[in-house]
Amino acid sequence: MDRIYKTLLFDGKISLAIIESTDIVNRAIEYHGLTPVTAATLGRTMTASLFMASNLKNKGDKLSVTVCGDGLGGHVIVSVDSLLRVRGYIDNPKVDIPLNEHGKLDVKRVVGKGRLTVVRNMGLKEPYSGSSEIVSGELAEDFAYYYTVSEQEPTAMALGVLIGDGGKCVGAGGMVMQALPGCDDQTALEAQKIIMKYGDISSHIKTRGAKGIKDEDFKGYYFTETFPKYECICSKEYIDALIVSLGREEAEDILNEQGEISIECQYCDKKYKYNKADVDALFSGENDG
Ligand SMILES: [Zn+2]
Question: Which CATH fold topology does 236-287 show?
Answer without folding.
Answer: CBS domain Like (3.90.1280)
